[in-house]
Amino acid sequence: MNETQPEKSAIVLCHCSGTTEEKIKQLVNSGFKSLDEVSRKTGACMGCGGCEDAVITLLNDCC
């Protein structure tokens, strides 16, 4: 899970873990390519699942 609170201006994709759009973009730029990789690193999509579509869309747009 994310240890830090996102900035107020950050776009939070996963409210359960606090994962921001920017964090996922940083991970993609570092070589993360799959939902599984991003989920394991951030905790996104591992709570209620409400962010899964948004995270998948972002991954598809970035990769």
Tell me what the structure shows:
With 63 residues, this protein is mainly α. It has a domain at 17-28 and 35-62. It is 44% helix and 8% strand. It is built from 3 helices and 2 strands. Strands 1-2 form a two-stranded antiparallel sheet. Strand 1 and strand 2 (19-20) form a beta hairpin. Helix 1 (21-29) runs parallel beside helix 3 (52-62). It is globular. The model has no long low-confidence stretch (mean pLDDT 90).
In this structure, how is the largest beta sheet organized?
2 strands, antiparallel
**Helix amount, in percent?**
40-55%
Residue-averaged pLDDT: 90
* SS field, number of helical segments: 3
> Span from first to last CA?
23 Å
Strand order of the largest sheet: 1-2
Q: What's the overall geometry? A: globular
* Residues in β-strands, percent: 5-15%
Provide a quick synopsis of the model.
With 63 residues, this protein is mainly alpha-helical. Helices cover 44% and strands 8% of the residues.
Which key phrases capture this entry?
single chain, 63 residues, mainly alpha, two-stranded antiparallel ribbon, globular
Walk me through the topology:
Layout: E1 12-14, E2 19-20, H1 21-29, H2 35-42, H3 52-62
Antiparallel strand pairs: 1-2
Helix pairs in contact: 1-3
